[in-house]
Design a protein that fits this description.
Order of helices and strands: HHHHEEHEHEHHEEEHEHEHEEE
Structural class: alpha/beta
Strand order of the largest sheet: 1-12-2-3-4-5
Radius of gyration: 23 Å
Oligomer: single chain
Distance between the termini: 60 Å
Helix content: 40-55%
Largest sheet: 6 strands, mixed
Number of helices: 11
């Protein structure tokens, strides 16, 4: 058995076990007898089939079919995720009730078994509409010590983690571009995970990026998903669209008495894909003017922050986390990243982590709304 097939086989076994767990814990307590078992079992079986198919669909030669299968698989994944969590929560609640005086009534068992899939469905529907709408604008002021008057109110429009792919296409990105252009920002910053697929598959759907408008231009840094999708080809494509790609390098903006350094690093894990692309904040500042008023770093993952702070940056803009995307996953992001969402301080460094402008996988956002961020420099 190949190394690739072993992990996939493990995923199938895990999915089978988790679907069986849900069936055993919910179906016996529903009304309807055998008919309920058959219907409930069929729904769980369909979910079990659709999720792996959705993940494999990007390899289909028929791209239209691949998109339809991906839609079905990702919708199933979103519902199943909440169903699994709420089934587990129900079991915890039942365990607590079992420790209290008095028996657990059949009504409690029945009503809770009905409530769990209904709640999972409701949250999935709400989450779908949240994910598919154009992200709202979030305005954030970043206080900078000794900020020159020339840079007071300097604005950056940040978009991140759009994940153009099977369920996010040209019209979705066009709406984002229109919203960003309406901000009339000094700079547009795209902090990685723009795509999930190759240039050949997705270039018609990333074309709206050519319409981005900002006083000093648009800038991009790679995220981990670019490396899954052919980073070198995407770097070339973005440059063709007029977006400046910063790969451990910087530009100097607002030249004159108050220069601003805007730098970008490759993804935190880029070195695993190409050692020459290893993320390096120190290199990104090489030969930058010593009298720069502000040094801003674009870095896809928040965990670049300690190195950025050591390198001497004042501000880091990141994404990657999606803010957890939907409950309860935001509570687990902190085990992998130092920040989940919003503005935080690390030593002398301000770190802003976007919740993302699109979504990955399930078209679902609940408790972690997408955002287009309007960041404004202000004097501390």
């Amino acid at each position: 058995m190949s190394a690739r097939r072993r992990p996939f086989g493990f995923v199938i076994i895990m999915l089978l076990a988790l679907h069986a767990y849900i069936g055993v814990r919910l179906l016996p307590y529903l009304d309807g007898g055998v008919a309920t078992w058959i219907l409930g079992g069929a729904v769980l079986l369909l979910s079990l089939i659709l999720m792996p198919l959705g993940m494999m669909s990007r390899n289909f030669e028929d791209h239209a079919l691949a998109d339809r299968v991906s839609w079905a698989g990702m919708l199933a994944m979103g519902w199943f995720s909440s169903l699994l969590v709420f089934t587990f929560v129900r079991d915890v609640v039942l365990l607590v009730l079992a420790l209290l005086p008095g028996p657990i009534t059949p009504a409690v068992l029945h009503d809770s078994a009905v409530f769990v899939p209904a709640l999972a469905l409701l949250i999935s529907v709400i989450g779908f509409f949240n994910a598919r709408r154009t992200a709202s604008v979030v305005s954030v002021d970043i206080p900078v010590a000794n900020l020159p008057a020339e840079l007071q109110g300097f604005t950056i429009a940040q978009i991140s983690d759009i994940h153009v792919g099977p369920t996010i296409k040209n019209n979705y990105l066009s709406a984002i571009v229109a919203a960003v252009n309406a901000l009339d920002a000094d700079v547009v910053a795209i902090t990685g995970d723009l795509v999930d697929g190759s240039v050949a598959q997705l270039s018609p759907h990333t074309a709206p990026l050519a319409d981005l408008k900002a006083r000093y231009g648009s800038y991009f840094v790679t995220g981990n998903h670019e490396y899954y999708s052919g980073a070198a080809a995407w770097v070339a494509e973005l440059r063709r669209l007029g977006v400046r790609v910063l790969m451990n390098e910087h530009v100097v903006l607002n030249g004159g008495a108050a220069p601003l350094v805007l730098a970008g690093v490759t993804d935190f894990g880029a070195g695993h894909f190409d050692p020459a692309n290893a993320s390096d904040p120190v290199r990104a500042l090489l030969n930058a003017p010593a009298d720069a008023a502000v040094r801003i770093l674009l870095a896809h993952q928040p965990r670049s922050a300690p190195a950025a702070e050591q390198a001497g940056f004042d501000v880091q803009l990141s994404g990657h986390t999606h803010g957890g995307q939907f409950w309860p996953w935001g509570h687990f992001v902190r085990f992998q990243q130092p920040f989940t969402a919003g503005l935080h301080r690390l030593g002398k460094l301000w770190v802003y982590t976007s919740r993302g402008t699109g979504y990955w996988g399930p078209p679902k956002r609940f408790g972690a709304p997408s955002e287009i961020t309007r960041l404004r420099l202000v004097r501390a």
